[in-house]
Amino acid sequence: xxxxxxxxxxxxxxFAQPLEKLIIAGPVATISHPIFKMIQSGALKDVAKEIEFxxxxxxxxxxxILLKKEAHFVAIPTNVAAILYNKGEDxxxxxxxxxxxxxxxxRDKNIKKLEDLKxxxxxxxxxADMPDIVLQAIMKKKGFDIxxxxxxxxxxxxxDAMQMxxxxxxxxxxxxxxxxxxxxxxxxxxxxxxxxxELYRSIDLQKEWGEAFxxxxxxxxxxxxxxxxxxxxxxxxxxxxxxxxxxxxKTHPKEAGxxxxxxxxxxxxxxxxxxxxxxxxxxxxxxxxxxxxxxxxTILEEIQPKLIGNKLPDEGLYYQ
Length: 320
Fold this sequence. Notes:
Elements: H1 2-14, E1 22-26, H2 33-41, E2 51-55, H3 59-67, E3 73-77, H4 78-86, E4 91-100, E5 102-106, E6 121-125, H5 130-141, H6 146-149, E7 151-155, H7 158-166, E8 172-176, H8 179-186, E9 200-204, H9 205-213, E10 222-227, H10 232-251, H11 253-263, H12 269-275, E11 280-285, H13 286-303
Parallel strand pairs: 1-2, 1-3, 6-7
Antiparallel strand pairs: 3-10, 4-10, 4-11, 5-8, 5-9
């Protein structure tokens, strides 16, 4: 009986009609960039007649898209996926492509470690989102009093932080690629170079994380998730084509930069190309990433349980 049912499912999948539209939501950050190659190449034309990329600009927009189920797939901070899953939302992580994307950029070339920023201001975008979460976890593990030892100033989004740095209104800023490379490019361009400071990639937060927690210099920061009920064939095709596009992205920085700039006006082709060598990119399946994710979630739970939805998510979060 099981063989007959399995054969029927296979035949139904084989002759299933393509979706009218497949919607993928993501931020301006690196995790979204391979999606543009998927769209350009028509990689999923066998499962969807049209692919739409929907940009979310801040965590609130992301949560609205998910709660309203306005996307089939979404690029998402891993802890947000845990929160939504623990709230009963129908969401599953497919894989984790982003393992390192955060740096603190400074105007002082002598700053090398987090300790060097003690009693200084650090500008951070998105309060309580992934960059802030990682930074505070490291500070706490290293024994710092976050409120007394550092002056953390929050701004709404990465472009705000970047502009503060370029215009000398801030000396130390936490950024994620490709915003980091955008800032580095802008300070070397005319006429901004007349007023902008020299900038330095001073602190790699992934390295700080590895030292603080005695683990790898990588963090499962952002993943791809499926929202709602989606056929296994579509999920498999989406994951495989994303992996193919990611490999192209990593090995064709110039072309990748030009493609991304066509879709996101804020980003320059040169900065995107620059950024690729500074990001840890490896699309590892949710099941193979589970141990790293659970270790990460456990650390977040110890800091503040609500950062993962008040408990470790069970096996159902990880797509099989």
